[in-house]
From TrEMBL:
This is Ribosomal protein uS12 methylthiotransferase RimO. Pfam families: Radical_SAM, TRAM_2, UPF0004. Gene3D superfamilies: Methylthiotransferase, N-terminal domain, Nucleic acid-binding proteins, tm_1862 like domain. Its EC number is 2.8.4.4. NCBIfam families: 30S ribosomal protein S12 methylthiotransferase RimO (TIGR01125), MiaB/RimO family radical SAM methylthiotransferase (TIGR00089). Catalyzes the methylthiolation of an aspartic acid residue of ribosomal protein uS12. It is found in: Cytoplasm. Its cofactor is [4Fe-4S] cluster. It comes from Sulfobacillus thermosulfidooxidans (strain DSM 9293 / VKM B-1269 / AT-1). [4Fe-4S] cluster 2 binds at residues 155, 159, 162. Belongs to the methylthiotransferase family. RimO subfamily. Residues 374-438 form the TRAM domain. PROSITE patterns: MTTASE_N (PS51449), MTTASE_RADICAL (PS01278), RADICAL_SAM (PS51918), TRAM (PS50926).
Length: 438
């Protein structure tokens, strides 16, 4: 009888890509994949270890999945991902429920881990894998028309609050031919939107070619037939060059959308955070982008409650949000992480203050949403349909990324994955309405 394997993937899209590769490897090895935990002989939890809440969710999920030994048919539980890599031996010793463990560097050994878990040898793998070392067909967990495309692994930045380099290693770009080969394979399978992800997408290629080459990658992606959108996530303002902006402007396949996590606006906090840019530089970059691409959609994220953040620092952040009028803003409270450079700063900002500042910052953004989203009214854009209702379909245009931004409602019945031209006609706070032009 075929062994059934289920997967729970936690954390960011980069982790999701790893999960999809593992699923592809397992299917190639003859395992049957199942979305039902009650049916699984083996369950894999691909964990996140970025902040405290994510770590707790990962542990809780492992303990929850372990219950299927009694209420399902579970024979083996495998722990993978960032938390496995970050805490290795500690978790190995503290979680006897786990029958095998693979870190972020060796998820390509998932078949070996599953086989060992089923045979009771309790294997664990924590090494570092070459970024282009896995050749397999991914098993997409996104809708058939959208896929994340990981273009690099790891991070070389030294942000004081972040433990990602501990979990993912140094920055390693995937070679151009590997990325384009995978992109062509995904598009041939029906994908119409590719979302580029890395810890810093804008420096892609610097370690392979001597300098960042993201524009070169975008030009290569433009040549793939039937690809509709390419969306860039996780960019740094220090590496957003005129060449990159011109490529985004000139290439029809590249969505006029840029995700640029800035984290703060006050120079004191940026310096403490180890962020390699300052507000004046950021404003110049944003103005350059908007001058070249007036319809650009800009997404960013901020951290409140970082050690030493005063009311004055926070007011500077609020003023920055009001002044720059980003299309999409996410605000997170600081998470005190062991092993980071910020650890020695302690965690002096009370949790209640962190939460209050988060609410205030999001309220400022919410008051701007109507005018910011209203700028799209009258635009004609391609709309990627995601859901068909009885009289209204739901989709996303170039201005919205899946799962984190808004959606667009259009009258009519259109199939998921279909791309139709629409004219934006109105707003519903974070969402939009549109009229079909077909």
């Amino acid at each position: 009888m075929t062994t059934k394997v289920g997967m729970v993937s936690l954390g960011c899209p980069k982790n999701r890509v790893d999960s999809e590769v593992m699923l592809g490897l397992l299917e190639e090895a003859g395992y049957q994949l199942t979305p039902e935990a009650t049916e699984a002989d083996v369950l894999i939890v691909n964990t996140c270890g970025f902040i405290n809440s994510a770590k707790q969710e990962s542990i809780d999920t492992i303990l929850e999945m372990n219950q299927y030994r009694e209420k399902g048919q579970l024979k083996a539980l495998v722990m993978a991902g960032c938390l496995s890599q970050r805490y290795q031996q500690t978790l190995w010793d503290d979680l006897p429920e786990v029958d095998a463990m693979v870190g972020t560097g060796e998820f390509h050994r998932i078949v070996e881990a599953v086989e060992g878990a089923l045979h009771g040898t309790r294997p664990h793998f924590w090494g570092e894998m070459p970024v282009s070392g896995v050749k397999t067909s991914r098993k997409l967990t996104t809708p058939h028309y959208t896929a994340y495309l990981k273009i690099a692994e790891g991070c070389d930045h030294s942000c004081s609050f972040c433990a990602i380099p501990q979990m993912r290693g140094g920055y390693r770009s995937r070679p151009l031919q590997d990325i384009i080969g995978e992109a062509r394979q995904l598009v041939a399978s029906g994908v119409r939107e590719l979302i580029l992800v890395a810890q810093d997408s804008t420096i892609w290629g610097h370690d392979l070619y001597g300098h960042p080459e993201l524009p070169r990658l975008l030009y290569a992606l433009q040549e793939i037939p039937d690809l509709v959108f390419v969306r860039i996530m996780y960019s740094y303002p220090t590496q957003i060059t005129p060449q990159l902006v011109h490529a985004m402007r000139d290439l029809p396949v590249v969505a006029p959308y840029l995700d640029m996590p800035l984290q703060h606006a006050h120079p004191d906090l940026l310096q403490k955070m180890g962020r390699p840019f300052r507000r004046d530089k950021t404003e110049r970059v944003i103005n350059m982008i908007r001058d070249a691409i007036p319809d650009i959609t800009l997404r960013t994220t901020f951290i409140v409650g970082f050690p030493g953040e005063t009311d004055e620092h926070f007011e500077t952040l609020l003023e920055f949000i009001q002044t720059m009028q980003f299309d999409h803003v996410g605000v997170f409270t600081y998470s005190h992480e062991e092993g980071t450079r910020a650890e020695k700063l302690g965690d002096p900002v009370p949790e209640s203050v962190k939460q209050r500042r988060r609410r205030e910052a999001m309220l400022v953004q919410r008051k701007l949403v109507g005018s910011v989203r209203g700028r799209h009214i009258g635009r004609v854009v391609p709309l990627l349909i995601e859901e068909m209702g009885d009289t209204v379909s739901v989709g996303r245009g170039v201005m919205d990324a899946p799962g984190i931004d808004g959606v667009t409602y259009v009258k009519g019945r259109y199939a998921p994955g279909q791309v139709i031209p629409v004219r934006i006609s109105g707003t519903r706070e974070y969402d939009l309405t549109a009229e079909a032009l077909m």
